[in-house]
Amino acid sequence: MKPIFIFFRLLALHVLFLCVTHQSYGQHTGSYDTTIAFMGSNRSVSVYVPSNYRGATKYRLMVCLHGLGDVTSNYRNALINSLAWGSNFPNTIFVCPEAVSNTADFFQGDTAGSIVQASIDFAEKLYHVDSQNIILQGFSLGGRAALRYGLRHYAEFKGLLLNTPAIQGVKNALNKQSYYKFDYQNASKIPIYITHGGQDIAYQSPIDSAVAMMVLNDGKVKKYEFPSMGHSIPNFSGMSNCIAFFDSSAASQGAVASVERIYAPLRTCASSFTPNILIRNMGKDTLKAASIDYIYNGSKNTYYWKGSLPAFMHQVVTLPAINSATDIQSLVINITSNTVSESAAKLTDTSYIQYSATGSKLPVFEGFENNFPENGWLSTSAGDYFSGFGIFNSVGKYSQNSYADGNTIFVFDNTEMHDDIYSPALDLSTETKAYLHFDEAFNYDKYTANVLGRDSIFADTLQIFVSMDCGSHWKSIYKKGGSQLATFASPILNPLNMQADLIYPADSNWRHEVLDLSAYAGNANVSVKFSYISALGGILFLDNIKFQETAVGIEKEAAPTPSAITLYPNPAKDKIYIHSNNASQEKVNQISIMDAYGRIIYLSTSKISLAEDQNINIASFANGIYYLQIVTGDHIISNKFTISR
Q: Do 133 and 244 share a structural domain?
């Protein structure tokens, strides 16, 4: 009997040892701060362990990465106390490591990413962690770091929970930077749950671009938008389905079709076009059919797709050819066949297509005084919120407005990214000569060694292209950058913030450019593209873009004799009337009014006839001297009038 007694005594001691061991795991519960050895020094970590922790139970582990400027204890307290994640994520241990510093990005180099693994090792040494249920979470720059590390080490995690990942610009999202890339090819191997605030517009395009890259790699990704939220983390009620998503990798039952993108031309010169759309399945079951409505020029048609798309797989679907319609029309895509609700699914998308069967006859003018783009002009942006052409309503060559764009080292790296302006299609079929006129003002940034460690220049470039095949191919006809493009005597020296980069050109800082387009005369559909290319330094203003038959600023200047055009009453009060003594021949292309300083304060490009007297409302103009200019089919007529009340 003695051997049996010894066996049971040893077994009891073993059980006691296990109990004591697991009991020792739980000596620290609640919130506490400590340090771990990492890369030759100590790194702070903030921990939360449920107060009812029991060593016999396996616990989910969440490694949480804070944002720029925060400290790990504050971040842990926000998650556990303000957002109540301790109760919302039951049986979960939270470990929040400190970033490299509270003024730096979370990771400085690839090796520093192992702080995540060090945090996991720390938790597994002290607590009973379920190694198959580890979630990597991050907010802001911590979210960007979590995305990068999680895609590289996907096998270590059950999922990635990214709250507004602060991806640093569209270029960063598209992996066009050499130093901070995301392994999107692994996005199909790990569930990725993203939240983002609709008011956090700086990160809208970068996050959307990153999601698009994951979709193209059949990523198990869902992104949820919170319209009224800024740069923050939503209440748990708005993301309560994340656990089910991590558990199943496709929380929605059934099949859910989502339209992710429309592939359609920006401009077409053909009588019809064939759009493609990118769809994917965001449900658990295989998607085998979808009903897709497509609406163009007020006409709705339905395309019935059939195929086989497993969860999170994508496919490019070609829709039937659509007859082109006049001017710019919207193409709206609607998914109408889903029987399962999934708020992350995109059920509708819209694209705009401009149809130019024939080009516009010269002259064509744009002074940016009205809404833009207009009258056949188009504009596209590289995507970042902080860049992109837009109306600048306090600076113009002769008027109040111009079109401006700029770049700076103080926001995202968008080097080599470009924003573009497209002219209307131009009909030069009856022309023998054609010229492009425009006014520009530009300056760039220069830093001295005492500021950046060495003398440095950041200088953008303006490049102009011409196409004769509706934009399929482009030929460069103009390229200037830096000091060659600059219209100021000296660069912007050592700007230390975005405001210092903002310049206001005086009249002497504008340059008038004339480019000869006569080589393209005889063609019926010519387009011109202005491309502003970033090198992280500069601000460009464009104004008074004009296509005409002559190289001089005024084609033919007729004497402002009363026998041609008469303005009455003069002096005027509330209205000025235009009378032509040769009304049958006067076809007006443009009317403008300039003040005594040469600033355009009224501009109309409507083509009208002077068969009847025309009037212009001038009630809002101040007393003084003004100049009215009329551009007709072959000449320009200028008259002076006075406002006196």
A: yes
